[in-house]
Amino acid sequence: MKPLLISLVLLIVLAGCGSVGNELGDPVILDSTVPAPDAGFVTYTHPSGVFSMRMPASWKPEDLSKPGSVRVQFSVVEGDQDVVRLSVYVVNTGTPMSAEAFEQAANAYLPPEDIAAYEWHEIENSAQADHSRRIVGVRSYPMLGPRDLNIFLQRDGTFFSAMEVDVTGADAATLNTVRAVINTFKVDANATLDVSTVQQAAVVGVTSYSGVVAFDGYYAWTDREGVFHITGQVLNTTRGPLEAIVLAGILYDNQDRRLDEQSDILAVDVLKPGEAAPFDLRFEGGKPPSTVRYELEVAGRNAEYAASTFYGSENFVVANAHADYDNNTLVVRGELANIGTRPAAAVRVIVAIWDDQGHVVAAQTVFISKDQLVPQEAATFEV
């Protein structure tokens, strides 16, 4: 086997890997010129320049910032009421945030005892693949009552930021809009902001692009745990780089009724022209018995700004990559070295497994154990 490195994607071809066969045949692939999730949105940039995002023109920002911190809440008219659907909070901690510092800041943001005496019931608290944190819970306010919140915490250089999304009573269209907004949220790590400390947030509540992409090596199969997978790879056939590429797999019965849907963001931050990246859409509940076909949809946006600072695959080399079985689990190991001229942070390795018919049958992403790799430094990885 000869390992290939493509956009930090380690592709390993295994003949006769024991896949069960494409259960549904070729999918209906919708033209990727469908409107991007943020189509029709406007760009909001905070006066400090510390963050920007895309949002519907009907959203109204209210700047509640104070010296040392940025706080903005965004409201929308629903029926005859103004509803705050999103609140953004950013502080400059003064020093580059390590993983340990981020955890401390995250814990300080939502302490066990609420400083405002609001009742908080936590439902989920999980680390994300990009080292951010997602927290789900219910906060009760004296006037508003209980509000269902999704909170996203992240670090960008010396900045700590939080997005609180109020999903109380939100319908599917509202949820899709909010999801599109938070996926465009960006922090400018070079912005100027007075140094402050992380405190709990007391909340009251770019140009779009969708270009032509191609799917390749797609496959539909069920694993031995009953999880249904749609796997394959996305190829950027446009003339420019793409980012925030969102995939969706939709299952239908023979009367074209939508049975289930699974979406995910492509693992690579920037997909350059001609590059490909694998995906694995997982339906944890399995394939509904009446499923007869599936569709794949994709949308993304132009990544010219992100591409200018993206530390791409040309700065890395993979060595000693090999795959073997350990207790009936396929394990891929190797070494990754930074051969570029700058330190690299949040380095990830994406492994795709192909069968002998050219199908992607599995894809997995891991971040290396080190927070950063300096030039000429190497680290091992295991998937």
Your description of this structure?
The chain is 7% helix and 49% strand. It is built from 3 helices and 27 strands. By secondary structure, it is mainly beta. The model is unreliable at 1-9, 15-20 and 200-211 (pLDDT under 50). The protein is globular. It has helices at 99-109, 172-182, 304-309; strands spanning 4-6, 9-13, 28-29, 42-45, 51-55, 60-63, 70-78, 81-92, 119-127, 133-141, 145-156, 159-166, 186-187, 213-222, 228-236, 242-252, 258-265, 270-271, 276-283, 293-302, 316-326, 329-338, 344-345, 348-354, 360-367, 372-373, 378-382. Strand 11 and strand 12 form a beta hairpin. Strands 6-7-8-12-11-10-9 form a 7-stranded antiparallel beta sheet. Strands 3, 16, 17, 18 and 20 form a 5-stranded mixed beta sheet that branches. It has a 4-stranded mixed beta sheet with strand order 1-2-24-25, with no helix packed on it.
